[in-house]
Amino acid sequence: MDRLKATIRDVPDFPTPGILFKDLTPVMADAALLRAVTDALAAPYQTAGITLVAGMEARGFIFGSLVAAALNAGFIPLRKPGKLPYRTYQVGYSLEYGKAALEMHIDAVAAQDTVLLVDDLIATGGTAAASCELITRNGARIAGCAFVVELDFLHGRKLLSAYPVHSLVHY
Ligand code: AMP
Question: Where are the domains of the chain?
């Protein structure tokens, strides 16, 4: 995890002044590190009976798909409004740097599914909490939420107190 921290690139004032953006593209480009991150995100859930991994646009798609494959689970995308072709549920939320909304296909998750939520980073927790709201809409169970990076000083996991939360590195 020291190598993971050393490989994450800090980009000051992106996308707006005052935000220190944690750029994970150097992690994605490192084959051994990408494998290690995938395995570490999946490890706590190997025997949790995960049927679906949900990932948020866009970096959640990358890590979420890899974790889904590692867990022999399916993957479902949570997307920005207007991107999904079929009928959707929508939830609005606040972001560390603005406001946003997420959508999920109404038939993406069934009541009998056990879902793991995966994203690259948890900041205020708004994105993840909105995602959990979408996933549980049809009665599915969330087994946990897994992040590569957690910004502890924003206390995002408070919004996810109903679920186990695992993060690989903390700032
Ligand atoms: P939040 O809803 O505040 O927890 O924000 C989490 C979402 O915004 C994740 O999808 C992150 O990819 C992105 N994000 C928020 N803050 C940062 C940051 N400082 N560096 C990189 N990504 C961030």
Answer: 2-170
At 99 the pLDDT is 85
52 bridge partner residues = 74, 115
CATH number attached to the domain at 2-170:
3.40.50.2020
Percent of the chain with pLDDT over 90: 95
Q: What is the mean pLDDT of the chain?
A: 96
- The answer to whether 103 is a known catalytic residue is no
Is the full-model pTM beyond 0.85?
A: yes
> Torsion-angle region of residue 22: left (phi > 0), alpha (psi -120 to 50) or beta?
beta
DSSP conformation class of 96: T
Site to substitute for ligand 1 among 121, 148, 158, most atoms within 8 A of C-beta: 121
**133: annotated active-site residue:** no
Which residues does a 6 A CB cutoff place in the pocket of ligand 1?
Answer: 19-22, 56, 59, 95-96, 119-128, 156
The ligand 1 atom nearest the CA atom of 125? 4
